[in-house]
Structures are given as structure tokens and as C-alpha cells.
Amino acid sequence: MVCQTFPPAPFQVCGAILDKYNSLGGPGSFLLFPKSNELVNPDGFGRRSEFLGGNIYWSAATGAHPVAHDFLTKWGDYGYEAGFLGYPTSDEIVLNSGRRQEFRGASIYWSPLTGAHNIQGAIRQKWTDLGADRSALGYPTSDEIVTPDGVGRCNRFQAGMIYWSPSSGAHAVAGRILEVWSQDGYERSSYGYPTSDAVAVDGDPGGSIQQFQHGSIYVNGDYLRGLLVPAESFKSYDTALHPLYCKDPLHSPPTCPVDLSNYDTMPDPEGKLSLANIAEAKLVGEYFDHQNEPHSKDLWDHYYENTGTDYILDPQLVDCWAAETSNNYQAPKPAAPAAVIAANKEDVIAHAIDHADTAGQAAKVLVSTDWELVACADHDAVHSLGRFRLCSTTAAIAQPGPPGGHQIELRQRSHVYDVYDYAYGDDTGGFPAQQGSNVGAEGCELGVAKPFLIWGDGVEHSWTGLR
């Protein structure tokens, strides 16, 4: 066997390990200088040499491969070659935005954002089928996890999860479907394990549905509908569901959905413009007081506190504004909040009745709408939020029966959000609201008033009746 030393290190590197070391560049490689002679591994068959930057492992079945840095640490967590991962079967493989290394029992994937995690078996195959690290799921953010029931397995990824059980196989769960399923308790939920991936719905552009052991979850954009047959009782979080305020939090600016691109962009070296703007802002606040619009005044003051922190609306105020049946906006005219809520209620009842009659037993349906653009007629609401976004979330349990004889139990809650900011407009007509908007827009550019997120959830309301 050929051996070689690499001064000033006194240690010998030999055989296949030496060949691999030299092929990588020897001491000039990431491994640097050797720090041990060749060692016999605890299994009595394999060999290794240790270096300052990692190790090279060899076995007759797998050959010689370096394992270094986070890969070596992760491999060590599971017992090195004695663990289920076994010996390495490849060097590190460079990927689009990370690396992977193959072992006899599994793979380890690494990226700067996620670190190193193992993935194996049916879960690894499903992830590979979806595109692996280039898939919508991204890189793994966990090792394989045994589910609490002791039966299933799962891996977490940057944008979702893959779950496996012996009876259902491996399936990805992501987005709003994962949101609903996770809040209900994952595989321990009323839905059980996923039995399919999310698939497109024929004749329904943008719609997809995922089947579970005891129901299904359908999404189209941010619209979501969950079905459980047989129905179980209402859960405390049923009506708490709503879409994210930021559509793509992984790839959006940290302030999303608040746009701060215009904040503090207007030069004011002497501070005179800022002082003048603050004086004008005080007059706008006095106007809101004079008009008896307390919430408009409070939000305006928060804007000029210049903190940018979220403002949470009181549940009773959310319900008050959500009950508005009209608004005075011109085309394109936003919906009235009450119309969105009423339509959501009827949509849920219709689906619950249909599924109860089809199954011949009680069915539970949950629907969370998209963020709908709405507006109110109340001046305090108009000057507080203008056009804003509303989501109505309703859960209903329907019993089978004849037309008009379906017993319905229902829970419903409203959710709202808005970004409090201002844009310049034409104030030649002398309208106070537009003049205030121009003051607010300038205040942002001067860096004395900071846009912020407003959000709030209403009270859960119950309804029982026949349909």
C-alpha cells in the first residue's frame, strides 16, 4: 500500500484514501493537512483519515469519500457509518443553491439558509419526483421526523411538508392547505393523513384539491374550502383562518405588505419642510376631531408617531364596519362588507347541504374567502381605511334532509386588513380629505410619518336554522 506524508504534518495518508485526498488537491483542498494516521473504523471493516477540514472515509463497498463541515456534523448526529445513514457513497455534489451528499441509507442536503438535513425513503422519492431542491417546496428544514402516533414520518421544507404513512404513502402538503391541516392538528386532525397530492380541478382554472383520509381541502388563490365527512364538532380555530397579509413571505421584502420605498426620500437638510408638514398634520387631526371621527384621528396620530408598528382593530369595531351594507365609491366600485359576508354564509350552507345529502350523514364545510376589496359608507371608516380588504370565514355542519329541512349549525367571523399610507392627488377642489392625503404622502417622503399595517378580527357569531 502506498502511503505519503505532507509536512509539516507527521501523519501518513495511505491507499484509496490517499488517492482521493490527492485528487481533491491535498493540503491545498478544503480538507487542509492530515491530523491522524489511517484509522480502523469501529465496524472493523472501514478505514478513515482525519484532516483539519474534515475526514475521508473508505469501505470496500463504497470507496473513499470526504465528509466535511455541516455534513460531517449531521452524519455524526446519527452515529457516522454505524448509524442508519451508513457509509458515504458520493462526495459533496454542488446544486443550484446548495449541496448534497449521498449515503447508503439516505441523503443529506445542505443550503446556507436551511443547514444540513437528512431525507430518505419514500419521502425522498416524492421530493425527487416534485423536483427536489428546485421544487416549490425548496430545501428540507428538518431531518425525517417520526409522527406522534409512531406510525408516520415527515420532513419539513422551506415551503411545505411531505408526510408518509404505510396506508397512505408519501404526499406533499403546502400553502393554505397546510395552514388549515396544521391548525387542525396535522395527521392527528379530523382530516387524518393526506392520501393524495394537491391536484388541479378540471374546468376550474386555478383550483386544486387535496384528499385526506376523512375529507378534502380545496383552494383557488386564497379561497379555501375544507370538507369533513362524517362531521365533527366545531373547533375554536375554525373561523380564525384567513389568508396571509403578504402573498409570498419567503420572497418578499421584510416589511411586506407595507411598501416603504417612498419613506424618508425627500431631502430636507434644514428640517423646515418637516416642521411645516407636522404643523399641517396637526390641522388634519383637528379636522377629524371636529368631524367626530375618533378612529380616523387615532390612526392619523399613529401614522405620525412614525414607528411603523401594526395597529390592531378592536373586534367590535371590525364587526361594526363589517356590517356596512353600502358605500359611496365610484367605479370600479368595491363591494359592501355585508354583501361579502352574506355570500360566504350562503356558499358554505349550499356546500354543506350538498355533501350531507350525498353522504347520507352530517357533513362539515369550512370556507375562508379571498381578501375581498370592500369599503364602507361611514365617514369614520372611510377616513380610517378607505378601501380595505375583508375575509369572511364560515364553518357549517349540515344534516341530511329534504329541501327546507336541513338542520344547519354555523359559525362565522370577519377579518380585515389594510396598509395605512397615502398617495398624492388633486386637491384643487378644496376637499379636506384629499388635502389630508397630500399632507400624509409628503410626511412619508420626509420621514416624519411611517406607513403601517392595520388588521383585526371580529367576534365569532353563531347561527342555527333550517334550509
Task: Output the keywords.
467 residues, alpha+beta, 3 domains, eleven-stranded mixed β-sheet, four-stranded antiparallel β-sheet, 10 helices, flat
Question: How are the SSEs ordered, and which strands pair?
Answer:
Blueprint: E1 3-6, E2 9-14, H1 15-24, E3 39-40, E4 47-51, E5 54-59, E6 63-67, H2 69-77, E7 93-94, E8 99-102, E9 107-111, E10 115-119, H3 121-130, E11 145-146, E12 153-157, E13 160-165, E14 169-173, H4 175-184, E15 199-200, E16 207-212, E17 215-220, E18 223-228, H5 272-290, H6 294-305, E19 311-312, H7 315-322, H8 337-359, E20 363-368, E21 372-374, H9 379-385, E22 388-398, E23 407-420, H10 432-446, E24 452-457, E25 461-466
Parallel strand pairs: 19-24
Antiparallel strand pairs: 1-2, 3-4, 4-5, 5-6, 7-8, 8-9, 9-10, 11-12, 12-13, 13-14, 15-16, 16-17, 17-18, 18-20, 20-22, 21-22, 22-23, 23-24, 23-25
Which residues sit in consecutive blocks of at least 5 with pLDDT less than 50? Answer: none
C-alpha geometry: flat
Oligomer: single chain
Radius of gyration: 30 Å
Helix content: 25-40%
**Percent of residues in beta strands?**
25-35%
- Give the number of DSSP strands: 25
Number of helices, counting only DSSP H or I runs of 4 residues or more: 10
Distance between the termini: 87 Å
Structural class: alpha+beta
